[in-house]
Amino acid sequence: MAIYITLGLTSALLIIHSKYYTLTNVKLVVIIIIALSVAVAFLVRLKNNTTKAIFIGIVVFVTTGLGKSMYSGGEYKYFYPTNPIIDRIQRTPGHFRSIAIMKNDLEAWGANINTFYDIEDVRNNDSIGITWYNKFVVNQIYEPDILNFLNVKYIVVPEGIYYTKILSNKEATFSHHYDIGMGMSVGSFKPVMEYNGFTLYENPRAFNRAFMVYDYKIADTHGEAFDLVRRYAPQIGRTAVISREAARYASFVPGDTMTAPASDVSFEEYAPNRIKMRVDTSSPGLLVISNTYFPGWHAYIDGRGTRVIRADYAFQGVFVPGGRHEVRLDYMPLSFVIGLILSLAGLAAIPLMYVLL
Prior knowledge:
Layout: H1 2-17, H2 24-45, H3 49-65, H4 76-79, H5 84-91, E1 97-100, H6 131-140, H7 144-149, E2 152-158, E3 164-167, E4 174-179, E5 185-186, E6 190-195, E7 198-202, E8 210-213, E9 215-219, H8 222-231, E10 239-243, H9 244-247, E11 263-271, E12 274-281, E13 285-292, E14 297-301, E15 304-306, E16 309-311, E17 315-320, E18 323-331, H10 334-356
Parallel strand pairs: 1-2, 9-10
Antiparallel strand pairs: 2-7, 3-4, 4-5, 6-7, 8-13, 11-12, 12-18, 13-17, 14-15, 14-18, 16-17
C-alpha cells in the first residue's frame, strides 16, 4: 500500500507541476509511473524469491540505464562536425543567446543539437517548455528591442535572405537595417561571417543577461503584463513590468528613466542551478535577469534571503538596495525535495520488498 501511495503522490506532483509546462513529456512521465506501478503489482504476486530477485534486478538495471547515453558507431565529431560559424560563437566570452533561422528546411543546427556545442538558443531546447516563456518568444521575439532584451547576440541564417541599407540622417551617414526573414527586420545586426551557405549576424546592442532598472509599471494580471511589455518594448532596458503584489516589495519609487543611476552587474558564477553576481548600484533598483521565471528559485543578497519576482511577464527580478552587493540565485524547488525523499524511500523499499513479500 505504501508503494502505491508513493506512486500516487509522485504522479500528483507531476500533474500539478505540468501547469507550468507544455504537457507532452509530463504525460509521458506519468505513463511511465503507471507502468511501474503495474510492474510492482506483478512483483507482489510473485511467490518465488529467486524470481523476485531476478525481476528486481531487471527493473534496477533498466531504470538505471534510462539516465545513460546509449551511443555507438564512431566519434561524436563525425556526427556533429564543427565549422567556423560555430567556432566563432563558442569563442565569444560571456553569457548570451543565439538563434538559427530556418528556410526551406535548411537550418544551421537542428533541434537540440545546439546543446552539444554549448550554444544557448533563444528557443526551447526540448519539447518541454515553460508556458509563459513560450508565449513571450513566439509573440514578441521579432521586435528588435525584445531581441536585445533577450540577450540575442548572434543570428545564423541561410543564404537567400539579404539585408538592405537605409539612409539614417541628413549627414548621409548610413545605418544598417537588416531584413533576415520570418518578418524579422533588425536595425543593429550586421553580418560578420559567411560559411557554406550561412551568414552569421552579430548584435552589438544585445543586453547583458542581467541589468539594473529604476522604473517599473504595474500590471494587475499576467495578460496585462504581457501587453505592457509589448507597449514599453522600446524602453524595456530602463522600465520593467511587475505585478501589483511584487510592487509591495519594491525598495524604491519609480523614477525618471532618462537619468538612471550608475550601475554595474558582473557574473562570478553561472550554472544551471546557481547564479552568483556582483551588483554595484548607486541607488536601489530592480535587478532583471532575462532567465525564465519559475517557482523554486531562491535569491540571497549578501547571504540574506530575499524574494525572486516575476518581471517583464516571463523573467526573473530581484530588488537590490543601493551599494555593492553579492546577489546569488539558487534553484531548489519543493518538488525536488519531495521527489528526492520519495526516491530514497523507493530505494529503501527494494530490499524490503525482497525480504517481506
